[in-house]
Amino acid sequence: HEEAAFASSIAQLQPNGVTVVVLMGMGRSAAIAGLLIDRGWSRGTPAAVIVDGTKPRQQVWRGTLDQLAADAVTMDGCGAGTIVIGDVVTVGLQAASDTGRTAQVRRTRA
């Protein structure tokens, strides 16, 4: 994702007012999170990264925008990834805890 194009796209969004979903943005996840923080998004905003979604080897990381900006997310594997930022992440976290699933917290750099 071109950082300038992303910045332009989010410029009109109210910070923490919507859910942001970024496809194929894993390599720039820290920059994307940093840009949102610079635009007034709370560092505590829930964030998730899903790699290899819908596959048996699916991995999910859940944390905060601040952790994402710090490039603290690591996952095994290098499949396609989706970044989700916003309160909807807490709904997924609640659903996961209700079913007893746990999240993997590792990502390797491609």
What order do the helices and strands come in, and which of them pair?
Layout: H1 3-10, E1 20-23, H2 29-38, E2 46-51, E3 59-64, H3 65-69, E4 81-85, H4 88-99
Antiparallel strand pairs: 1-4, 2-3, 2-4
Helix pairs in contact: 1-2
- Helix-strand sequence: HEHEEHEH
> What amount of the residues lies in strands?
15-25%
Q: Compute the average pLDDT.
A: 81
Count of individual beta strands: 4
User: Distance between the terminal alpha carbons, to the nearest Å?
Assistant: 15 Å
Instruction: Note poorly predicted spans.
Output: 101-110
Total helical segments: 4
Shape: globular
Question: Biggest sheet, in brief?
Answer: 4 strands, antiparallel
How would you sum up this structure in a few lines?
The chain has 110 residues and is of the alpha+beta class. The protein contains four helices and four strands, in the order H-E-H-E-E-H-E-H.
Question: What can you tell me about this protein's structure?
Answer:
A four-stranded antiparallel β-sheet has the order 1-4-2-3. The protein starts with a helix and ends in an 11-residue tail after the last helix. The chain has 110 residues and is α+β, with helices and mostly antiparallel strands. It is globular and about 35 Å long. The protein has four helices and four strands. It is 32% helix and 19% strand.
Keywords for this structure?
110 residues, alpha+beta, four-stranded antiparallel sheet, 4 strands, disordered C terminus
